[in-house]
Design goal:
Four copies of one chain form a homotetramer. Chain A is of the alpha/beta class and 339 residues long. Chain A is built from nine helices and 15 strands. The model of chain A has no long low-confidence stretch (mean pLDDT 96). At the A-C interface, strand 7 and strand 10 of A face strand 7 and strand 10 of C.
């Protein structure tokens, strides 16, 4: 069975997912597209034989040929689109953030609970990365004992000199660690603190870069996360969990070792795509498989909500310059952990 | 467009390719199967809705619903099946070896040349491995200067205690290095020598394990290849090219580093599947893409022939205990290097 | 010329330095010993032909056969002994801490300045470690641009279940990072904060282990230092400086890589001696060489004082649970940086 | 007790050992020097207060102030000098080769046996390298099972364009692996073969560089040794022993990892001094300690002889282009393995 996907939002990430469904994964086809920029939607559809173009997201969702929805529009539009997909009873894959505010995320949860079954998967692709999965396997197998600390770094080579704000380091970059530590440790985040070291002169004038985000897990595990979006030398995501009996760390990603000019060396990824492309593939394949099987998989609306709530606390911590507790609703049974 | 594949041979490797086409790759479907063991073919077909079972390979090849053939039968049957696919004008992916003798390979080449276009891809999947591809990129970019030597090791944890012969170390194991060095250096192998160190007591009584195979490239590059099929500790494929200005080596494959009990460590693959599964995926996707596009890709019949000719020389070198020149036909223009 | 050394304090560390001078280094001899435990001093002297035993540290310092003093007594005794050595005009190597309080350190500085020349070297041996020296060389050569952050970890396999207090994690363990970051960055530490993650159940009942110590350098460089004295898996000191153009990190220390049982692995040091023995050797050789040459080398009284001042702030930060500014005297010209 | 050393040969290596005894090691002093170039001997002695200059090696050996002899003259002079030291009953450290011919080595052995006690230590310093020692410890502890193979590489960045011959790659470079494999495996070498790959254009016109030397241990363990004296990229000595249950390999030597310009990298040593300086220190300290204790240590005359015998076979194998058995005398009980 082929899952007929309708894609809302045909910008960079939307196009990448279309390429993925069409040229890489199995079991899916893109049969409809929509974008606020109709011309762009038309150009994308031109490369998809038989795909229809819809003037509105609502129309696309209502299209009977569309089995499932992929939301890759900008964040503020997510709530309405995801809720509409739920109302139509159609599974929906929503790129992060699920919605820009935790209140909006709660409304999505309400809609999904009213529908009576899980229809939403949120695009936290790191959960599908071979490195994090191996890390979680070591942790869950007891190989390092009970966890106590985690050290993370999230380094981008650069961001545009204008338009990228310090808040976005929290909301766009750190959200990946916020989700992954919840998944790794299987618990919520209780509080956040943001430290501001001396800033890089490579950063735009108004950008506090790098930052250190401290996350306190409910159990007391402490996570420190270096966020550095002008690291220049490459795209480098690092992580080490320290447990009572040992540690587990993400290994360097590299195919070959070169010995030349008195150095032995391996490559550092050039960007997030280079580093995580397989995780994106696996995430979307998992979604297609679940849709085809009539089940659900991956990060839920609750995960989207939790990430939003922690992001809110971190932004407040940055603003206030002090530790900020995370305010969260109670987890509904509906979103109890899957086995 | 979906490529409708007919699979000849539904043993372990055939089933794995069926899983791959059905559950992993895009653009292909398995519509017909055949096996000398009809019961096994039936069991496999039962998991493939709509797939037909053919009593003979010839029937499968003749089936109008079949666009392309995947040959995963045992080696002695390859020639007849591949030639029949060529005669039917259908693209064929043939697992290694293309045929058990170089004479049979030459007959396949003749059939393909008579057909006037490349229809055969041989299953040398290492060419699709990210490690070897990165190695070739470094070499081709001049990063280590002109190549002089290559050191290889090909270690399997174990082979069955009975039935696996010393000759099979050459024909089944070393054939991977035989093909990959031809591809890496873009030239033929001129001679082979086999060295016999003290044998492991883990090896079956009649097995000379490990072996060292020496391959002399036409240009003088010397390759030494440790072949060790009872290495116990894991599946480990290693390679380092030494050039006039530096070296490039396959890096360890590992997602995480664990620190425990006074060691820092990473994992070694458990078997060939673990190590090369992505290469198998990429190889077959490349074939499906080429079939869909009406073109050809990957290792050719000539590559299958050359591997057979070098294997012959290596087996003779093992038997005779001395350096043996490789005897090869001249390369037809038809098989001139691509691009 | 042989430097005739008098050793005050013949406990574990004193004996180790005696072994070093006697069996490893060149240019020194131990000619006199003193210990509060006269029996122990006698036992040690028995292994040193010709060495005299002195009833008091003062007697030893006054001994005409003694050229230079090595203070390895307990911390509270250091001030009186170091000041006495200065008064006698004899060079003195003092194990860390220079003195338990910053006030006492200031009095030592006053005595040394009154003497008119540098006579004191403090035992911060990490400055002599090949790893930290290579790190500083990369930093100073501009290889990673201006520094912004440093991540440290200082892990001991275990401490005694009783008697080792949380304060000692600061005063005994973190003092090494406190000194090394001052040396690496060539600047003072402005403030300290201590974070208290969930504690390891391997730690004694009253021990908050691990801790995270945050150090703010005067320039804004932020250092985070994981201190974990019951890490079980080994003795592991890690460090990575993040600069505007790259990073430099201490590499794993290991002589060989073992492949066995599906792991490739290297060893982690078992204890501080294993990890830093060469640094201790180099530190004391540097002292002997400087004494023989009539010059001075290595960490000064000012460095001892600065470490004490930062330790005071860190202990206060631990107690108060908040960021604490470091209070320090102005650096006298006498202790201006050597070029 | 200080060992008073007389040094014969004050060229580069002699001066380096003098520096070592004088500035690095403990328990030794250089009290006399001799060189065929008297002016050079004089210059060296000028830096050694109290050291005498002798017109001949015989005079130096006879000097009553000299306890022990260090022979760092050129190879052809070794036999006469070592035999004279033995005749004088004085311990002698002789740089490699013990003598240029195996016949000369046998005469030294005869002299030493006639003297009735071991007086000679040969300068095979790799036995004192931390890497090889860790490798031997893993092997001896059974960590990789019984050994079957060893892969070695010995790469120098360059040799002078004139004057360095292909024979010298065997006699000067491979002699280090010849000794170390005898030590690692505790057995003799039975045969040698030399392979000649395509040569590097960086090599002088008459130099066959690189070479592959194959050594067959008496037990059947097979060693392949890549010898490459114009490797350009650095000084790199590699080794991996393959056993029945695993492998052990020399690790990269590097203090720090740098991340910059999309690479993570560590340094490769620049020359043999950089790589092995600690081994030289340890070797000579062991000699001084043994002399002071009236015992002997390290590689013996038998080891010097065995290396010469294998070198002879390897040179013959290079000349003849075929496998050449090693011809060796029987090992006298006098040189039975220590302890």
């Amino acid at each position: 069975m082929t899952v007929n996907v309708g894609v809302i939002g045909t910008g960079m990430i939307g196009q990448d997912h279309i390429r993925r469904i069409t040229q890489v994964l199995t079991g899916g086809a893109v049969v409809a597209v929509n974008d606020v920029d109709e011309a762009r939607a038309g150009q994308v559809a031109a490369g998809l034989p038989g795909a229809s173009i819809h003037a509105t997201a609502q129309d696309l969702i209502a299209d009977d040929h569309v089995d499932a929805i992929l939301v890759a529009s900008w964040g503020p539009a997510h709530e309405e689109q995801v809720v509409a997909a739920i109302a139509a009873g159609k599974p929906v894959f929503c790129e992060k953030p699920l919605a820009p505010t935790s209140a909006a995320c709660l409304r999505i949860m309400d809609a999904e609970m009213a529908a009576g079954r899980r229809l939403v998967q949120v695009g936290f692709m790191r959960r599908y990365d071979a490195g994090y999965r191996a890390m979680k396997a070591v942790l869950d197998d007891g190989g390092i004992g009970a966890p106590l600390l985690m050290h993370c770094a999230h380094r981008n080579p650069s961001v545009p000199p204008y338009g990228f704000t310090t808040d976005m380091i929290i909301s766009d970059s750190s959200v990946h660690e916020i989700d992954i530590v919840r998944w790794l440790f299987g618990e919520e985040i209780a509080a956040a603190t943001v430290l501001t070291p001396g800033r890089s002169r490579q950063a735009g004038a108004d950008l506090q870069d790098p930052l250190i985000l401290l996350l306190e897990m409910a159990s007391g595990v402490l996570v420190d996360d270096e966020l550095f979006v002008n690291a220049r030398y490459g795209y480098d995501v690092r992580g080490e969990i320290v447990g009572e009996a040992g540690t587990v760390a993400l290994a360097d990603v590299g195919e070959v070792t070169v010995r030349a000019a008195n150095r032995h060396s391996g490559r550092v990824p050039v960007d997030w795509r280079d580093r995580f492309i397989r995780a994106y593939d696996a995430e979307l394949q998992d979604w297609l498989n679940a849709v085809a099987a009539g089940t659900s998989a991956g990060p839920t609306s609750w995960d989207g909500y939790a990430a939003a709530a922690v992001t809110d606390a971190a932004l407040e911590a940055l603003r206030a310059g002090q530790r900020t507790a995370v305010t969260m609703a109670e987890r509904p049974d509906f979103y109890a952990k899957a086995q």
